[in-house]
Amino acid sequence: MYLTVTSVQEGQEQYRFLWGFYVRGFKPWHHCQKCFLGTRADGICPSMKNVPRLPLLRSMDYFYLCGYAKGPAANRGANNLHLAVEPADGETATITSNYGPVFTFEDARRIVIPESNAPRAAYGEFDYRCMNFRFGQLMYPTNLTGPAAAADKTPILRAR
Prior knowledge:
By secondary structure, the protein is mainly β. About 10% of the residues lie in helices and about 40% in strands. The protein has helices spanning about 75-80, 130-140, 145-150; strands spanning about 1-5, 15-25, 35-40, 50-55, 60-70, 80-95, 100-110. Strands 3-2-5-6-7-1-4 form a seven-stranded antiparallel β-sheet. The radius of gyration is 16 Å and the shape is globular.
């Protein structure tokens, strides 16, 4: 699998965080990046430049690209970047950031993450609306999540 990044303009760092992750499991007692079991990819960061073809060589079930936008929280959700892919020879998955950069994965298939209607306040500190968490639960199914899973702390390693 390879990642190509194009259309990055100098001084266009609009993400507070930008990262890629080799996902090999799910920790259902966390949300955001902490819910993933695996390794963070080198070279994917807010200050990255155009990249002609970055090989993604580590062992993985899935690869997750996430950009956490700068700015007011009310606007952030619409500007955040999420793209989950799985290895698939001959396929391509692409996403264009609201800020211009285009991220293209070769030999990868996009995984659609379903929307959530769960209100944040209903779960206290734990946010079931988190795209990272929803992806983890989709790909590593479990009924035990959030604070209930924290007591057990057994990561889910079997992908769907």
